[in-house]
Amino acid sequence: MRALLGSGGIRTDERITLYQEEMQRHFGDVEQVLFIPWALDDHDAYLKAMMDRGLNAGYELVGIHTFDDPIAAIKQAQAISIGGGNTFRLTWELHRTGAMKAIHTRVVGEGIPYMGVSAGTNVACPTMQTTNDMPIVRPESFRTLGLVPFQINAHYFGGSTWVRLEDDSYIEHFGETRDDRLREYHEINDLPVIGLREGTYLRCDSESVELVGGTGRVFRIDRDPVDIAPGEDLAELIA
Hints:
By secondary structure, the protein is an alpha/beta fold. The chain has a single domain (2-228), classed as Rossmann fold (3-Layer(aba) Sandwich), CATH 3.40.50. The chain is built from seven helices and 13 strands. Strands 3-2-4-5-1-10-11 form a seven-stranded mixed beta sheet, sandwiched between helices. Strands 6-9-12-13 form a four-stranded mixed beta sheet.
């Protein structure tokens, strides 16, 4: 199994360059990547935006929505990439079409590379329970691809209680922090959670999990959170 999992926040030249470098490192000499835009509503616009911003990193991105049979497209894919958006919408569509099982078979059973960003990262986990998104639709199950044996909280921003307003100013709201929410998760669930900050990635295979691009934090049940540094192998920490 090989997966590259990113948090998102690809909005600066530096982060776009890192995204392209990591994508090229991960997919190697693959020529065509099956892109799954189901986390957003306008699939054609999503695919076009990826190409216009250079987020194809030189690869041919082919949208799964352009195929009459999405399962056949998955079975023929050289590599798979799932982008960000709403994780509930994405999970609903993956279950509804049968793509959840088909992708798992190709990535885990046959070893083709998988890349996820934001919602695409959330569904690489055993469940989608650590998403930040609103439940705009109800999927048949919260269970997802299970490519990695831990949870990820994408767009993690630490214990901050500062929020951004419409005019890009910030106020302190004194409400629950992201750390509070993840502690709530561990009141009922026991899988480790990696808080993945903006512009960062996890390089995952069957033996290692390496953080790239910035810092993060690991949350485990009945333990204090542990900050993690770029280049660190997290395999033992999240075992």
